[in-house]
Amino acid sequence: MASDDVSEAGRNVRRCSAVNKAAREFLAQQIADGPGPRDTCSLITFNDEATVCFQGRRVGSDTLDAIKQAEQAGGETIYVNALNMATRLIASTPADVHCVVFLSDGEDNHPSTALLQTAISGLVTACKPGQLQLHSIGFGPQGSTFEWLEKMADMSKGKFHNGDLLAWDTASQGFKLAQQAVTLLVSTPHFATGSTRLAYRATASSPAAATSLPSGPLVVKAAQDTSDQELELQAPYFACLHTAQSAAQAFPRLPAATTPKFVDCQLLRCSTEGSQRFLAVEQLLEGAYIKYNGNKGYVAPLPDDAHGRERHELAQAYSHWSWVHSGGRELVCDIQGVNSVAVKYGHKDMGAEGIAAFFESHRCNGYCHALTISNKRPAA
Ligand SMILES: [Zn+2]
């Protein structure tokens, strides 16, 4: 990415004129290099809206005039709509290579990582692997950083992972094939770090209807240390998830309380750079992640708001109840809730010690009383 100064021959030019000029210069270079007979060009201008000025024009000098005549967009600068429009044009314009040159005369006025991520994922997945070339160029006063243009460029460097989707099979306590030939676009770098895994945003390249994956943004959790132990590392998460899911299904419906739910998770078995990888894939839950309790007796502080308190107390009561439900064998803990109806957990089995630690710090609440489990605790 270049951030050009816009003073030219001692006079300042309007930045949007500089953008228009740069677009023409870029195309003029293509013309000078000798365009292929099938090369075409489309132009989108944008402010808070994106407008297609022309689509699929043969590359030639009249195209340069068409760019010059294009209305120069003033007002707000919002990248996402322009990227979404580019995705639509790419989807309707077959080509061997799609070269997107993103020129902006200012920083995005309403930046959002999640929206930009979705827009870039859409753009990248509209192309076949290796088909997209994305260039982003910012025009601003000297010292402009164009942080969001840089983020955009980074996000477009996602990696494609192609393989078979596996689901957890309770009967065999192992994985079984759910679907063949699934492609995921995994955005780098990771956005969160767990104790043993890194979390990446991802999207399925095939439409959700064609895969057994949930629709919308996904999260991929992969081993931090990409040794050959990734399958062994992932399996316990699936076994624990299944335990938590079956307990949640049996959890009694309490008046005026949500039921704990755990998002489904699948495993993508794929080969990357010669080694076999096992990537856990699940729906991405937007919102702040909250850790309600831990596997060594940790209990999160009680939130200030009524809704947060309700979810917190329900999570603690669910943990207590899961122990009663299992006949004192297991306790679902280390629950990570998100501000939606779903909760989910990562797990490191601390065994009896962890169960004892939970009950040491657990104070029964209204939900425990409603579930009539307050007097059901491990014998002292
Ligand atoms: Zn309790």
Describe this entry's structure for a reader.
By secondary structure, this protein is of the alpha+beta class. The protein has 3 domains: 3-155, von Willebrand factor, type A domain (Rossmann fold); 159-283, Phosphorylase Kinase, domain 1 (2-Layer Sandwich); 289-370, Protein kinase-like fold, CATH 3.20.200. Helix content is 32%, strand content 27%. The chain has 9 helices and 17 strands. The protein has helices spanning 15-33, 61-69, 79-91, 113-125, 147-155, 230-250, 306-325, 351-361, 366-370; strands spanning 3-4, 7-8, 11-12, 40-46, 50-58, 98-104, 132-139, 159-169, 174-186, 192-193, 197-204, 218-223, 265-272, 275-283, 289-291, 335-338, 343-345. A 6-stranded antiparallel β-barrel has the order 8-9-11-12-14-13. Strands 1-7-6 form a 3-stranded parallel sheet, sandwiched between helices. It is elongated and about 85 Å long. Mean pLDDT is 81; it is low at 1-12 and 336-347. The site of zinc ion has 7 residues, from helix 7. This is Alpha-type protein kinase. InterPro entries: a-kinase_dom (IPR004166), Alpha-type_PK (IPR051852), Kinase-like_dom_sf (IPR011009), VWF_A (IPR002035), vWFA_dom_sf (IPR036465). Keywords: ATP-binding, Kinase, Nucleotide-binding, Serine/threonine-protein kinase, Transferase. Residues 160-376 form the Alpha-type protein kinase domain. One of its GO terms (molecular function) is protein serine/threonine kinase activity.
